[in-house]
Amino acid sequence: MQSIFESTNTFEVWMGKRTDISKRLLKKKHRQMADGPFPFLRSTFYRWVEQWPIVCPELAERAEDVLLAVGDLHVANFGVWLDSRQRQVWGVNDFDEACELAFTSDLVRLAASAVLAAAEAKIDVEANRVCEPLLDGYRAGLRAGQPILVTGRHPALVTLTRRTQENPKVFWAKKLRRKDNPAVDARDLPRGLEDMFRASFRPGAKLTFREQRSPGGLGSLGRRRFTAVETKKGVHEAREAKALVPSALYWSKEQDDMPSQTATLLQHAIRIPDPYFQVHDRWLIRQLAPDVAKIEMPQPRDKRLARAPDLLRLMGRETANIHLGSRTNQDLAERLSNLDQRRPGWFPAATDRMVASVRKDHSKWARE
Fold it and tell me: What is the pLDDT at residue 14?
């Protein structure tokens, strides 16, 4: 097993062969990885795929449990978007690391992230209290998979999303700030990106282009990002393009010819799509708007994860929605039941072990 430092270096070299990366932003990512075990987890899916089969071999080595998984699943990987009927939809909103893993990997990673996020908010929570509602929600999702809308049927979501919309003036001032997002000529965009952008706007739209120099999410921090903006009568409409690379799983397995599985997963998962989300060979394009948001967790003294089982159940349900794109509900329900019979308490036990593994790596990283 490589050290965390060797893993980080070899992975970033591998990533740099597949897309342009910013050394400045990678250094920023490295500093944020030292901030705590939760941001470390979010930043290091490449380490998870190394550690998972070693720390939890009884789960990782079951080939019959493998399906197309989210991969980099964690509690800050959920958000809201508007569908084609302007309904607010909630669910997983980042599939950059889609890959073939045992279904248990997504569940354990999600539970581990909840434990670490709660600890970051200065609240201690045992794995049992996280795993039970997550698994309840997952089972419910297997019985009747369906997309999740933000409605009165889900009071926890109504409360959670109440303050997700940013002030439009503040949002656009930040996104259009020249220092962080300097204008670029269309000729300076990566090959083919202008055409991808234009396909996402009305025909004939007058677009301006910018390169984002402010950081994005922790997992993809360092990859190049661009925005295209149309402004009509003071009203802005924008899209963001983020460089797409194959999952870190294929780095760990030395499968250099494997393409990204993001589009395949999205095509089969049970979900109401974001009409502006596009997956291209090397780019992801999505809408930028004040009411399209990733829901950041945790906040200081954040009690939502430690004391909000309804929210965790919904996260479990949404995980089932993704997995049902690869397997039937009966097949997954049987595999889960068999696992419960063979290894009672497998879920909190595996979560505790992976939490300990993440904390150990983070401790070494933070000391450097």
Answer: 95
225 phi, psi to nearest 5 deg: -135, 145
What token pair was written down for 311? Answer: 């929210």
**In the chain, domain spans:** 4-367
Q: Could you tell me which residues come within 8 angstroms of residue 173 by beta carbon, excluding any fewer than 6 positions away?
A: none
Residue 368: the pLDDT is 81
Say how far residue 90 (Cα) sits from the centre of its chain: 13
Bridge partners, 238 (sequence order): 229, 288
CB–CB of 351/111 below 8 Å? yes
* Contact call for residues 343 and 58 (beta carbons, < 8 A): yes
Q: Which residue has the higher pLDDT, 290 or 226?
A: 226
| Contacts of residue 71, Cβ cutoff 8 Å, sequence gap at least 6 | 45, 49, 97, 98, 99, 101, 105, 106, 247, 248, 249
**Residue type for 243, please?**
A
pLDDT in tens, 16-27: 999 888 888 888
- Using alpha carbons only, how large is the chain's radius of gyration in Å? 20
DSSP per-residue string spanning 138-201: HHHHHHS---EE-STT-HHHHHHHTT-SPPHHHHHHHHT-TTTS-EE-GGGSPTTHHHHHHTTS
Which position has the token pair 């921090």? 221
Six-digit token string for 344: 């009672």
The answer to whether the bond into 298 is cis (omega within 30° of 0) is yes
As beta bridge partners, residue 99 has 69
325 contacts 68 by C-beta, under 8 angstroms: yes
Tens-digit pLDDT profile for residues 129-139: 999 999 999 99
- Distance, in Å, from the CA atom of 14 to the CA atom of 21, rounded to the nearest integer, reads 11
* Per-residue CA distances from 130 to 100, 112, 312 (Å): 24, 9, 7
Bridge partner list, 69: 99
Q: Going by C-beta distance under 8 Å and a sequence separation of 6 or more, which residues neighbour residue 109?
A: 41, 48, 72, 73, 74, 354
Mean pLDDT, rounded, for 265-270: 95
pTM equals 0.92
